[in-house]
Known about the structure:
By secondary structure, the protein is an alpha+beta fold.
Amino acid sequence: MERMFKGWMASITFLLVTIVSCDKNERAYKRFIDEGRWAVTELSAGTTLFTKLPDWQIYPCDDHENYCMATWEHQNESTVDFYWKFSNLGGDFDFYADSATSDTQSMAFSQCVNFSGMYDVKESKRRLFRFESYTTFGYPDKLVTIVLERE
């Protein structure tokens, strides 16, 4: 009887953890997609602070479990589409450039590819996100920071 009770409790615990994890991913996703447009207010790699800051246009997406699409808009008016996703209870954010439909010679593409990777979500507020990573495509082993604020 005790063994059956422990198995039942383990199943309930697993179910609750699964529900909570989906809920946190969905909340981060909904905050991010809610307004649609975000300004990058900080972009750094190691000790380099970039001054040509892009905007991100986030498009409607009904499936927070899979990658969604957005556009990286460079200050020189070049753009690149990219895919993004929250995971790990909303604690991770990753994105990558879409090389198939983008001008791979543009500044937007170069910047987006270099900053592509898996980020830790360090701050998640209604109008602000702060992402940090040591595993970006263009700056491996350097602390990369992206701060986004809702426009």
